[in-house]
Specification:
Layout lengths: L7 H4 L3 H12 L4 E17 L2 E19 L2 E7 L4 H15 L29 H18 L3 E18 L5 E19 L2 E11 L3 H4 L2 H19 L2 E2 L1 E9 L5 H9 L4 H5 L20 E4 L20 E6 L2 E2 L6 H7 L7 E2 L8 E2 L3 E4 L6 H6 L3 E14 L4 E13 L2 E7 L2 E5 H6 L1 E4 L4 E2 L4 E5 L2 E9 L2 E9 L2 E2 L1
Parallel strand pairs: 7-17, 8-15, 8-24, 14-22
Antiparallel strand pairs: 1-2, 1-4, 2-3, 4-5, 5-6, 8-23, 9-10, 9-14, 10-11, 12-13, 15-16, 16-17, 16-18, 18-23, 19-23, 20-22, 21-22
């Protein structure tokens, strides 16, 4: 556990010497920075009445970058010394060469801390966490004799970063993360089904370990498992679908959000490329990416280039009005950065990434939306999915869904997949609920091999004409 303050330019690098090397590296380039990081994470997993996994990882290192046009030179090292930085600078210069570019203006950064800069596991020893996992297991099994397996995990991490820019600016951020997750397997008449629930964010573990919180997660995991235990095979065919609020926003994130990232649009790879200012969604649809929400999993007090995050409107009343930008893509597209330059660690170069992406609510009541569904499904939980960014085509599996006929929610269904494309789905939104909610804090997003924490959100929505994959006749 980290106890001492992270001071890379006092304890590892001479700041003036590092700044001189950085300036030499970006000479003739347009942009660049020195990103220094220290991080650690710990995960405990209790499964089948015993501690099945215990992992602790710690890392530190720097990444040095120079950018000239579309070319990026990047080098990283775990050795926090000036000789290592000198070797990295020589490597980066090989990529960008001796250009004659003018250095871009620095970020206008006013840092507003969005979370407490402390280790989320501070004051909670490993023994206490293991005892709690054991208690969760016993509590869950006592709730219902049909529970045959319980898996519970507690995870925490702390990432400390310092970003030195060639104009001399230095910003720092200390980013906590905590998560608790519970999954149960129930069995009845030789049939087994699973349910899971959990949450977290940039908060202390202490709140997640309170009995009122973890007992609610156990109850929700059991509820989902029992729903699936009585679920019938999903129908197949083209039908209207109502999505529940909150976590189903993962469909918006994957099928639409990635397509609104600047690099995909600059390169013409996105289904939304070239559509700025045009209608891309039904009236009333407004999509936001907001990295400034306190304590949320996807929030950042500063992005990984030194730019302050923002509340960025991407689609407003159905009209495409913005993309998510890092500094390089913004410069190449002639627009301003949006504070979305993110990287997994010091070993990765930043790129445009989402933070907390969600749709604003409308004026319809959720009950009225469901009552207006004549023949379709009501999907409130999602699992894995696949998306093709170039055309927005997606396939998502439902973890909790129900058959609806004539506005009445019927039996739960299993094995349902939603198939469509993001651009068409946006145009076919028929009703928007007044109940926008964010997910409980469990999302992680992958892009080009990099993983970062994110948030998603959605109000209750009705989408017309989605293809539902299933094994029963519609």
């Amino acid at each position: 556990m980290t106890t001492d303050a992270f001071r890379p330019f006092e304890d590892h690098f001479d700041r003036d010497a590092a700044l001189t090397l950085l300036r030499d590296t970006v000479s003739g380039a347009e942009d660049g920075e020195l990103f220094v990081e220290r991080a650690h994470s710990e995960t405990l997993t209790f499964d089948d009445r015993r501690l099945r996994g215990s992992s602790y990882t710690a890392s530190r290192g720097f990444g040095l970058r120079a950018v000239a046009g579309e070319v990026t030179g990047y080098a990283h090292s775990t050795e926090l010394t000036l000789p290592a930085l000198q070797r990295a600078a020589e490597t980066v210069r090989l990529a960008v060469g001796n250009g004659d570019h003018t250095l871009a203006l620095p970020p206008v950064t006013e840092i507003s801390p969005l979370y407490a800069p402390v280790d989320p596991a501070q004051g909670i020893d490993v023994g206490t966490r293991i005892d709690l996992l054991r208690e969760i297991d016993a509590y869950a099994r006592a709730l219902d004799p049909r529970i045959v397996q319980v898996t519970a995990s507690i995870a925490s991490s702390l990432q400390e970063v310092a970003i030195l820019r060639p104009e001399g600016g230095l910003v720092t951020d200390t980013r906590p993360m905590a998560r608790l997750y519970v999954a149960v397997i129930v069995e009845d008449n030789a049939r087994r089904e699973t349910g899971g629930a959990g949450g977290g964010g940039r908060v202390s573990l202490r709140g997640l370990l309170e009995p009122g919180y973890w007992k609610a997660q156990v109850a929700e995991a059991l509820r989902i498992a029992l729903v699936n235990l009585r679920a019938e095979p999903a129908p197949a065919g083209v039908m209207d679908v109502v999505l529940g609020p909150g976590w189903p926003g993962i469909l918006l994130h994957e099928a639409v959000g990635h397509g609104l990232e600047g690099d995909f649009n600059r390169k013409g790879h996105s289904a939304f490329a070239g559509l700025m200012g045009q209608r891309v969604a039904a009236p009333g649809v407004t999509v936001i990416d907001d990295g400034t929400i306190p304590d949320r999993r996807g929030s950042i007090s500063v992005d990984d280039e030194g730019t302050a995050p923002a509340r960025n409107v991407l689609i407003e009343d159905g009209i495409l009005v913005g993309y998510l930008q890092d500094r390089q893509n913004a410069r190449l597209m002639g627009v301003e950065p949006t504070g979305n330059g993110r990287r997994e660690s010091y070993a990765h170069s930043p790129m445009p990434r989402m933070t907390n992406t969600f749709m604003l609510g409308g004026d319809a009541s959720p009950d009225a939306i469901v009552a207006d569904l004549k023949d379709g499904i009501y999907a409130v939980g999602f699992g894995g999915g696949q998306v093709d960014i170039t055309n927005g085509k997606f396939v998502f599996s439902c973890t909790e869904a129900y058959r609806v006929k004539n506005g009445q929610i019927g039996d739960p269904i299993r094995g349902a997949t939603l198939i469509g494309d993001g651009a068409t789905a946006l145009q076919h939104i028929r009703a928007i609920g007044n109940d926008t909610a964010l997910d409980p804090g469990i999302g992680t997003c992958g892009k080009q091999g990099q993983w970062v924490p994110v948030g998603v959100g959605l109000p209750t929505l009705m989408i017309g004409g989605l293809t539902v994959g299933g094994s029963a006749a519609g």
